[in-house]
Sequence to fold (528 residues):
Amino acid sequence: MKKLWKGNEAIAEAAIAGGCRYFFGYPITPQNEIPEYMSWRLAEEGGAFIQAESEVSAINMVYGAAGAGARAMTSSSSPGISLKQEGISYLAGAEVPCVIVNMMRGGPGLGGIQPAQGDYFQAVKGGGHGDYHCIVYAPGNIQEFVDVMYDAFDVADKYRNPVMLIGDGMIGQMMEAVEIPEYKDLNKLPPKPWASQGHNGGVQRLINSIKIDPNDLEDHNHRLFKKYAEIEANEVKYEEYLTEDAEIVFVAYGSVARICKAAINELREEGIKVGMLRPITIYPFPKKPLAALAEKANVKKFLTVELSMGQMVEDVRLSVNGKKPVDFYGRCGGVVMMPADLVKYVKEGK
Amino acid sequence: MKVIISGFGGQGVLSLGKFISYSAIEQDFNTSWLPSYGPEMRGGTSNVSVIFDKNEIAAPVIDHPDILIAMNDPSLAKFEDTVKPGGYIITNSNIVKLPVTRKDVTVYEVPVDDLAEKINKRGGNIIMLGMLLPIFKEISEESAINAIKHVFEAKPKVIEPNIQCLKEGIAYMQNLMK
Fold:
């Protein structure tokens, strides 16, 4: 049954439904409802919540718990995610599955606390050091956040890779009617033969990310990239909206895509042919569907809309590969565009 | 239906929005409740954008509300110009001293605090909820009562006074609309 949930709390409950039993975090606005909720709720499920002394510590606690085979997660907002990057690189290097949530706020630096999308590069182009990728989802509403979170641990386990979910203060703070799926049975999850479970007579294993021999490390990188190729082949998720006959195709993710949708509906009422491609995964990025749209005769141009100075627009341009113009509209610093701003922008540009 | 509610922290602005959303889901509407958060709230105005619709809600942000509820002067000053022509502005006239200058909207200036004083001092926002129902038309008194019962589940003593506030609000608005 659908109930009214605040975004952050729904995400926390969906994580538990998806099997999360360990949460390690450090407070930061606008995601505090996630740790707050976990702090009492995980105890009910026999799990554990720790408010660590810092973000660096929290992500390393995730490394430890997930390395022992548990479903563990952390959440933070932009500056806190920056602090976690060393740990995320280690988790990716050691192939330890976990889930990380970033409810983005305006930056750079301590920045502000209002909604922003300035962490796109950080999320999809590495963030930490070395060659690696997190699988990154950017859901568009609370229900989609819940559904993605619900399966996020399965995806992380399947590829032995960190999964990141990015949203913003708007998604985290708002309420909508959502349905939490049925709780997963933790006893029915696939075994983790790689996990370090030496306690109480189990098999002792060492998990680390150090490979001193350059040849070993190069092989390891090649193996990781074979995995990323598989992820790129299997895990791309996106939604197309009214693209059939669209002359202008918006490209936007997360809550911004909703504002675009409202603008598109208004423009359509006036007979202006606009549509949207909304990436749900931003790594892997929906390159092929964008390239296919770029080939279509009806598509005259793309308009990337972001709460940043222009980050995803680079991936859109790479995908479109010069076949059609790619325009950009962005607001930043926590300022959120209104549908009317986009309607005006499109009409003036025509 | 798109509603912006705005006022000081403590006037029950955010919770009035919640009551609308809870009432709306009782009748299978989609609903979104988007609060202001952060520095805007500290000492300034707090506001919430509430939408309910049978269709999918695209943007949770509202550029032109059908209804503005202004519980203080800064709220009226900030949002008056944004209200859709033909829409409604309801002010708490015990607090709001600025005149409403728009001529293309329906204006109700209501002494909400005085009305609440007689029934339940803290029920001003529920009186507002009641006043909204005749404007909404699509949300029943029963749904609003269920929402009140749901929100105050842990405090059963306050349910009845709040239902009284709701009924007072409905009657007051029906009278104004005559």
Notes: The longest strand of chain B covers residues 45-53. The two ends of chain B are 22 Å apart (CA to CA). Residues 108 and 136 of chain B are 15 Å apart (CA to CA).
